[in-house]
Amino acid sequence: MTPPCGTKLYRLLIFLPILSIGLHAADSPVAGAPKFSYDARAEGWLTPDGAFDTPAAITRYTTDRQTLERYYATRLSHERRQAMEDFTTTWLKFLDQQVPFDSLDVNGRVDWLLLRAKLQQELSGFTVAKTRESEMARLVPFADSILSLDDDLRRFAFIDGADAATRVSHLADDLGKLSEEITGGKLTATSTAGRRAARFTESLRETLKQWHDFYNGYDPIFTWWMAEPWKRADAALGAYASLLDEKVAGVRPSDKDTIVGDPVGREAVMDALAAEFIPYTPEELIAIARKEFAWCKEQMLACSRQLGYGDDWRKALGHVKDDHVKPGQQPALIRDLAYEAIDYVQKHGLITIPDAATNTWRMEMMSPERQRMNPFFLGGDTMIVSYPTDTMTEEQKLMSMRGNNIHFARATVLHELIPGHYLQEYMSERYRPWRAAFETPFWEEGWAFYWEMLLWDLDFPRNPEDRIGMLFWRMHRAARVIFSLSFHLGQMTAPQAVDFLVNEVGHEPENAAGEVRRSFESNEYGPLYQCAYQLGALQFRALHAEMVDSGKMTNRGFHDAILKLNSIPVEMVRAILTNQKLPKGFQAQWRFYEEVPPGKPVAALPAAKK
């Protein structure tokens, strides 16, 4: 019979196995890296008559990949990378050897091609990651000593307290020597490598903390041995990360404003474009963005003249920025603008909006710290409102109000909610959900910005102020292509990108810094993310001309069809809508920009419903 949990005998019985594990870790079975294998017929994906269930296979790919990601909670692990490489290679072989491509229908071929492109992009990403790590390896030679502890714990090879204390003490000593070398000028690197190494060190510090927390307080021997070594190592890692920032990257510990960034290079950009099925070079895309930017400037000047500011478009823009609501009234403004946009697209038969989608979005306020990264409000199923709070300086409050004025907001509420991101999310959860594996900003952000462009063409803006509000964002999206690609090609620095947004687009300085910080220092965005708004929109715009302006589809039919295809590259949307039976070796070939110039005319709207 099991004794009550509170007795000394029970605590002793529990403690003895822990001691045994610690003393005999070398004799314990060690778990290896997870292995996956697939048989299409055994899984039921391939029927006797040769039909293949692509959605089921992609769902399994997604699930098994998530299993690996959960198992390797520490993304820094070298074993994790090797396991992910093996998994990716296994799926590439499966696609080539077990899927009867020639018997697939249009959607099946699109799914096959998308999964292959995703897998190839992942393999390229592993190679890039190795290169980037090698560039900072001299600055973090202690990394393996931390990662090996984490790997052992994941494999259930537990450590005893004395050994742990010795290894962690050596880590602290090594960090001290490295710090002396950097301070003395013996160990140097580029600012980019320094910033990368600082972030890597911060991640290693968190990994070591999680390892320490597993044992600490639970294993009394470990806790006794590790008290001082742990404090030294944790403090040394924190100090070393700050030293890398200050002495190598050139960022003071107290400096929250300096933006360093980490360019990926032209080859990585080209790989990313191939995965998105975009047959343009980064240089060509920059040229497209400059052409769009020039068109926006012409329109901005026309609006400025209408408002009586002549060719001084900055004054006209300032006039628009000053038209903002008082503090506390921004949520009501966003609510009213949201329902205005919903009413407009419904009355003109542009798209089908399910009844449940109309009123199931929510609203919350954005924190001041988060506004440093996202100075403008965000959307989806929750509108995250960016506006002044009581902890901001007076200058920051004014910039926030001016940057989120009525006319800017009128252009972007529809982007974030309906017919933009929220409607996308609502439909994606209900139609072809397996395609979440291929999630792409060119479909997501491109769709939302496409609606801004389409409604401009359909005279949604009511006056010059509204048009300036829409033009500001259109210039902004063109500028994103220019500064983000130029940065990753090594042709523009982060400070130069901030100046570009302030001087050429008319951003408030704080908002421009937040935009660039979001682009280059956030872990959420790849090198093409900021390009996807305009380029994806231009793709949808060209596809609209091909399918709707030609009379092949109605506006409603076109837009409804796109939302039911889920998040895939726009060239693949085009392949499905035009019923292309793509070959196995298909590569991107749609030169979408040559087909539709800026400011194109669109087919007449159907009469508004009364």
Question: How would you summarize what this structure contains?
Answer:
The protein has 610 residues and is an all-alpha fold.
Structure overview:
- Helix 15 (368-373) links the parallel strand 1 and strand 2 (382-385).
- The protein is mostly helical.
- The chain has a two-stranded parallel ribbon with strand order 1-2.
- The chain starts with 7 loop residues before the first helix and ends in a 33-residue tail after the last helix.
- It is globular and about 75 Å long.
- Helix 17 packs across helix 19 and helix 17 crosses helix 20.
- The protein has 25 helices and two strands.
- The protein folds into three domains: 37-137, no CATH class; 140-249, no CATH class; 271-595, no CATH class.
